[in-house]
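ingest -> fold -> write
write: protein_1
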Amino acid sequence: MQQSAASSPGTAPEGLPHTHTGARHWLVTAVAVAAVAGAAALVQPNDAGATAAEPADSTGPDPLAAVYPLDCGPFEVLVTDQAELDLDADGRSETVAVVRCDAGSGTPPNGMYLLTHGDRDGDASAPPRVAATLVEPDEGMTVDDLRAEETGFTARLVGYSSLDIPRCCPDLLRDVGWQWRDGRLELVPGRAPNSV
């Protein structure tokens, strides 16, 4: 199980990506997120456009039924936030889910995942499929304020630049968004990194 920064005593071992943050760290994170989002878009039709989720018969995949690529050891996976949106305009909403390990104390980092319906072969009982990882838990960030919009969704990433920063007062903050454009999902960075 991955330990959260809040539960790790002393100094972190050298080389962990979430312990040395700066402009390069944010750039690498943005490029990685954009690459994953772009790859997920390749399975979508090119003429698709995003539409806001309709309340009737276009419910997104249930985030509680999905199996996430998250190792929580003996703990359960906890869904902390979700948003539904029909990105590819096929009449079926996708779900963006924010999850973390339910460790009982501290604030383990979040992962954020794009879920699609898993019943591509007509099996209505198939669990939702994780189509893309939008925020890796290894980045050590907390995802706040997830919102679905007309053509995408936004979130705020909050974190700590070192283990010396009090857990009450995160010193990293970044508003990000993903927009459906020309048949693919694109990362849209918001405010500059480290600008709390």
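write: protein_2
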Amino acid sequence: MEIRTQNPIRTGIVGLSARGGWAPQSHLLALARLDGYEVLALAASSPGAAAAAGAAYGVPRAYGSAHELVRDPDVDLVVVSVRVPLHREVILAALAAGKAVLSEWPLGNGLAEAEELAAAAAAAGVRTFAGLQARSAPAVRYVRDLVADGFAGEVLSTSLVASGRRWGATFEPGGRYLLDRDNGGTMLTIPFGHTVDALAMVLGEFTEVSATTATRRPVVREEGSGRTAAMTVHDQIAVSGRLTSGAVASLHFRGGLARATTFHWEINGTDGDLVVTGEHGHLQQARLTVRGARGAARGTRELPVPERYFAVAALDDVRDQVPYNVGAQYADVLRDLRDGTSTVPDFGHAVRRQRLLDGIERAAGAGSRVAL
């Protein structure tokens, strides 16, 4: 199903809460700046919560459940911004109603759910989008083009070390569900998943992986209260592998926020080197600096991201802020819906990415290399 119209894309957001959180900080702020969208509806966990959110954000139609929202005939696009364990139910309802769907990453709680959701979308014949917005970051797109244009020559290897920001010694109030590996919102699926997707866009897909994972802090404390909680999520993830080009890749994510290196991504080639740094390992949100050197140069120099990569003028006031990459992706979604193009990752792409994460988990469990 295509939405070939010059009218605003009437959008319904599932998970928009008056208490705050990710959806109002990102989706709502981005959509409010873009011509071509109208936030028509929202769904929350109860009628009372929906009414409060509708009043707080000026959204005219407030529903007490996702099932009510997807039945609204005027909603064109359903945005799924709820916890990972709830994705499946909401997405299946939206697909059954024939709605286009944008789901936050990860698509499903594990590979099997992602495959089920992609198959359901294909059967329904509707447009789908996966919220892998790190690939929309201007710095990431610039690095992709530098590599494609031969700045580094033939890429020999890439190495990345990053802080997960969460999954350290403490957790935020309300963030307890992120400590349970079975809930699907882990350091592997969220910051590692966003980051490795961008790496693959720049340098190519993995063909094989080896991995070591560990939970080095099995007990953590809630900020403020000091109450302890068990953590089963891996807070150390070390992955090595080979890319389609033959280049060797090495990635290490550490839980929490390091006192030293928080994000450092290096690309080493026959003719040059590129380095991307940031304040944490959530590449989809981080403020990034690009540096590089070619030939006989000693040391790298900053390579400012050219203005052409900040192509969405309506987002200029939130450059280097959370809504920018989300909004840049929404601008591409709008073009895909209106022109029938396919530039934004869909559910099929999300399945391929979750297969990589599944391969990493299998490699870590077996202690051997896994072909992808």
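write: annotation protein_2
The mean pLDDT is 96.
Residues 158 and 249 are 5 Å apart (CA to CA).
pipeline exit 0
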